[in-house]
Amino acid sequence: MVLKIFFPQCCNKADSGLLVGRWIPGQNSAVVLAVIHYPFIPGQVKQYIHQMRGQSGVDLTVLGSWSMPKEGQEGMESFLRDLSTIFPQGQWLQLSREMGKIGFRCHVLTRDPSKSPFASQVAPIVPYIRHLLLTRAHGVFGTVCQSEPLFFLDKYDDGPVKMTHWQSEGREGSIIVELMKQASTPVCLLTTWILTLWTSLCSSRILNVRPMRFISSKLSTCLQLSYRTEHLQTVCSPTRATAHNHFMRKANIFVSFFVDVSLGLLLVSWMYRENRIGKLANTLVPAADHVAKELEELLQWLMGAPAGLKMNRALDQVLGRFFLYHIHLWISYIHLMSPFIEMILWYVGLSACLGLTFALSLLSDITALLTFHIYCFYVYGARLYCMTVYGLSSLWRLFRGKKWNVLRQRVDSCSYDLDQLFIGTLLFTILLFLLPTTALYYLVFTLLRLVVVMFQGVLHLSVDFINSFPLFAMGLRLFRSYRLAEGVKFRVLCEEPGTPLHLMMDINPLKVSSVVQTYRTPTYSCYPKDSWLALCKKLFLGELIYPWRHKTTKID
Amino acid sequence: MQNGDQHYSMEDETYTDIDGKAISLECQSHSGFCREFTVSSAKVSIGRVMAYTCAVWLSAYIIFFVTENTAVLSSAIIITLVGMMVHIHFVKVDHETLLIIGSLGVQVSSSYASGRESTDFIEMGKIKDIVINEAIHMVRKIKDIVINEAIHMQTVIYYLCILLKDPSDPEAVSSVVPLFQSSKPRLNCLVKVYKSCQEILAKC
Known about the structure:
The complex is a heterodimer of chains A (556) and B (204).
Chain A: E1 3-6, E2 17-24, E3 29-37, H1 42-56, E4 61-67, H2 76-86, E5 91-96, E6 105-110, E7 122-127, H3 129-134, H4 142-146, E8 163-164, H5 175-202, H6 210-218, H7 220-235, H8 244-272, H9 276-303, H10 313-350, H11 356-370, H12 372-399, E9 402-405, E10 410-413, H13 418-468, H14 471-479, E11 485-494, E12 502-509, H15 512-519, E13 526-528, H16 532-541, E14 548-550
Helix pairs in contact in A: 5-7, 7-8, 7-11, 8-11, 9-10, 11-13, 12-13
Chain B: E1 6-8, E2 15-16, E3 22-31, E4 34-40, H1 46-67, H2 71-91, E5 93-101, E6 105-112, E7 117-123, E8 127-139, H3 142-147, E9 153-165, E10 173-178, H4 187-203
Antiparallel strand pairs in B: 1-3, 2-3, 3-4, 4-5, 5-6, 6-7, 8-9, 9-10
Helix pairs in contact in B: 1-2
């Protein structure tokens, strides 16, 4: 197998010295981590390496020597060769580079006479180790990540050992990040305490009475509230995130929460300026009135001869009057509430400070409450139609002399008495001729209900999108793409005859589409419960449809 | 071109892809165990670009003439620009490269007309073999639709692919990575690349 040497780019220009790193046994490769410069005392170097080995747990050794001769250092090469006797190794690498040339030269001295040196088949590879470390890239570079204690000394430190490695220019850091790290602990503790108070309040007995639980499970605002509480608990837990996934999840939640709240505050400031909220409240009651009036006109149209169809007059009048009375009740209720609406809206609108998602869920809830009568009409129409359809199917079977066997779940033939047949046929005829009327009412109210459901669905989808989109991961991918790595990529740097092959290894960042898939926050997303075919079947039979269903939050 | 590596492109033998368009193959041997193959397809033809643009704008003008709405014209411009950008950035592949480094791995990269490169590196430990596979390719050309809609043209094509090992069962093949998907060179080109790769794979 070919001998491979992974060499950090920062050491390209380093002065001559000793190579420190690790051999990877199975793949016949060596990872160079640092170069220790002349002058050094071999005893101190050995002690230092032993110390580092203990601290990091990585099998560090002296790999060989590195020489980049400058003027006045001609004797260096032979000196470095003699070092191989001081540091006994199985294989001793001698890498050298001349100023002005890109290619390296490499010789391998081996002590073990059974292994022959592969000097002509060496492929040193020069990676951007700095960035690779930040991504905790896997494979060979697990070694490099673990050797962190080695990189604590930079070139400004005065110690027994002078080294060059990827962080010898100084460790990478940011003032903002450090300040945030200092401030985060007390803030986290405070927030955790507030959240525990809040959750204990929510689960107290007063608020857990049956009606309240039922209402709060239906209102999407309460769902969103509980969901955000969970999120905040994840973010504000005082323990540090160790795994990469955990850290990204926390960061994504924090950033999306931050963006959500700022958008919500913007919205609130826009709405409360020039008393727009008052104007909105003042248009709410006339809007509800308008909807009710339109519904009344629709019912009057249905009670007449809608689209030229001839309805059964008696049933038509009954149903029409029934629904008209409902609308009348609803309007009286709205008018009763109208003096309080502005105040309620003003205070409830303040909760949009908690985030844009709250504003959207509030809007969805208000729509649901204001169109409650449409929902009621839909349920009445659907139930009536459903009863008609089931009655018709059962009586049709009787008409043909068959019966539904509940035990065997199939249709069997049955002999009926004459009077059973007579009454059955009579009822069948009645239901059949009443079918168009009930079907028309059902159709009209189902369409209205579907319109409302679609509108609510759009709102829920946008809330879901804001909740789950990984903003932090996306920002990291766009601006610091080396931190999210999918793999590595190679480029051939130079091939000079007589020198080993020289490749450049770089980070291959994650594709933008896979960033969203990998780092998506799991949510209680609403998704269609039924496929299109099942939905159509339900509509045809008159079963009540609840097209959107909330998933419970997954915890992984 | 770096000095010292052997670089040869077969000028005397012209390669075509499965549709009959001319492509070019370039083989570079960087070292005894490292080779790079580049298959370049035809560039974006200026004639087609102009034809599409004229078609879109002519139809926009006709609609504007009928409806007298200037939004039609601005939307036509935006559609043309966005469509062109999407095409050269996401759709049109300029060349595809296969870099095989013995005992390290295989790197497959496609470079798009806008300069974007999409790279994938597969470690040698995961690779079982590189083979030429057969596939049935369904092609419907416009003239076939005009002449006889019911016929689907089916041809057998060859493609080069990398077989990946299953981590649990070393003998089984877990997945197949096809190479040169956009350029689709013909068998003579593939055989050349295949022979070269097998030489390197046999060494390590």
